[in-house]
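Troubleshooting: if your tokenizer reports a length mismatch, compare your output against this known-good record of 262 residues.
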Amino acid sequence: MKKITASILILIIAFVLCAAPDNSAAALSGSSGRIYDKSSTGPMVVRIQMRLRELGYLNFKPTGSYKSMTVNAVKDFQVNYRESGYEMQVDGRMGPQSMELLFKYDAMRVSLSGISIPSGPKHSSDTLVTTGSLIPWATVKTMMLAGRSYNIIDCYTGKEFKLQYTGGENHAEMEPANEAALADFMEICGREYNFLKRPVVVVIDGQTVAASIQCWPHGSDTVSGNGVDGHVCLFFDGCYSNVGMLPDVEHTENIYKAAGQH
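Known-good structure output:
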């Protein structure tokens, strides 16, 4: 009886081991020869971005879209390995070699020496020079026209700039129409790209609408020749991020500030 019980136990263990998920890079990629690049989208890209963020190479929320920020993060990852003696091509693409190294338990983290995260200019007080109306994104989206530039006013400084609405489902995606518009936008960002989010009002059909903008271009790029790659996110009341349809707490706080309700 003991022999039969032992045999059954061995069979159960063998079955569990065979059924265990394969967490190797090849299994994660779905194919040992698959290459992820700027044209890639989907759940696997999210996993790549999450791992890059976990290791310190990516400082933005995963979107599932392999754009310029992911390319640059992968390049930094590849440079780190090449400088450590690996024969690694630095091309920003996630091929079999990069995938295997990225998902190893002891994958190399980003070096923190000399790194500073840009945060943008600090405002001296919370006093606002202008405020706008709190209008839901579902309504705002019907008011805005793709390809049209809109006046935006920074609530802290009163500085005005124009950005072009290029689309967006969960929030507005905005780009400078040209380099002059980019220069005006950079003024309120402290003349550098950073993760700062600021309360603003957007002038739409004569109405000033409360919103919040971030000074970090990323993702899809629609307008060419404007001196910047990617778009910036403009949030209105009821907007969501592209990750898991979640609200952004900082943007929401800014929107209510811009509406004079905070």
